[in-house]
Design goal:
heterodimer, A: 274 residues, alpha/beta, Rossmann fold, 3-stranded antiparallel beta sheet
Chain lengths: 274, 274
Amino acid sequence: MAATYRLAQLTVHHLAAKQQGAAALHALNLVVEQGEQLALIGPSGAGKTTLLATLACAHQPTSGQLQVLGTDPWALAQDARHRLRARLFLAPQTPPLPPRQRVVTTVLAARLPRWTLWQALSSLFKPAEPRAAFEALARFGLGDKLYARVDRLSGGERQRCGLARVLLSSAEAFLVDEPLSALDPTLAQLTLTALQQEAAARHATLVCSLHQVDIARANFARIVGLRAGRIVFDAPREQVTDAMIDALYLNESMEAPQAAFHETPERLAVGACL
Amino acid sequence: MAAQRHPDPAFRGRIATVVVCLVLLWPMLVYSEFKPWILFDAQSLKSTGAFLADFLTPAHSLEFLQMVLHQTWITVAIATCGLALALLGAIPATLLVTERLSISMLGTGRMRLPARALRQCVRIVLILLRSVPELVWALLFVRIVGLGPTAGVIAIALTYCGMLGKVYAEILESSDAHASDSLLANGSSRLAALLYGALPESAAELVSYTVYRWECAIRGSAVMGFVGAGGLGQRMDESIKMMAGSEVATMLIMFVLLVAAADLVSKWLRKDLV
């Protein structure tokens, strides 16, 4: 079976702090097979979002090897790399939906990499595939919102609307960042099931970062724990013990770096008055 | 009891700013020969009085009104044609200049050298276009194409192309990038990301700025009439030279109506978009 991702000693820095400061991800080794589904868990700031962006070729690693669908994206020419991006789908945590756009347009935007410019233009006048958009939305319980404007949606509806895009993309890998953060438990389960079924149906890889550890353990066969930019464990869910989870999230607040003197509240207050 | 007086630490800085401003402003007043008292000299007062008294009864003979309407129409036509031509240049220039939709920056944070060079060149062209005032362009083109509206249209097209290109790019860059970035990261082309991500975010700002510029173009085309570029301004120049206050009054009323109309159009367009 071909691997979707093959990471070896992959180190990634934040774009602004390139080559200096602490790395966002340290020497990661990870192999994800095509069609595999895995959950990415870990405390805030562990590097989950950076890892997903790196897997989406939206973030260039500093060192180490990265193989995406059998090629090294950063060795490719820019055009080829951009075509590779169309085979991956990154769904950010905050849904990237322009508030003044209609839901049907925003969902159909997932088709853009496949459309010609003319198709993209004409779809702004008359939605090109309203049926496909409706079916994708209906999978997330949003069928009645097809022609509503995005700014009329609630936070949870926006999040599911962003995920409905995944279904319309032609991606071979879904990289989903915290898809359930604005959803109640029932909707969360429905939404995750819809994502997993779609990934399974088209044999796409699903990498999903999650804050809800219970949901991750209940739904994903493979769990990867990330902490401070390092993979703490990468195991089938049967082997993930409560102790491992506790260690992953332990002392999160105590290990936070102490604020430097010039950033302490007292000092900031003095600065504000000058 | 100095300890209880709590002297304001910012006070000295403020005094210094006032002094610096005065030192800078005084020579400017001298060099610009700002002598307001000339306004109140007996002879000036007399001629001003006669001119202003004439204002109270705006010219309203049928023949004159027809002429004013015709010239107003020419002025609006100059402004509209000029702006339309300016848009033809400004829209492609915006796409080239804006850093928002750069595929080469995606993941690396750096732009490729040829892309950066092209961007810089277009930016310089835009600066050149708008740094020459439209009045100067008009004077130039009156020499080349002769008296009449053509000179005005070309002058507006050139200056406004520079302004629109710059401000459009800035509006796009200051709007929320999340939607267009996400589309680019998922493999959309630049233009598709513009149409589905960046434009819906800033459409209202772009439209209202364009209508405001149209209003400026109407005023500008009136001013250019003074140098022989046709329209209402040319007639106004003639009336002022003949000290015909009543005619000037009618034309000024026409200007107020035009600007009010532009304001209405802007409001009406924005209501549809916001």
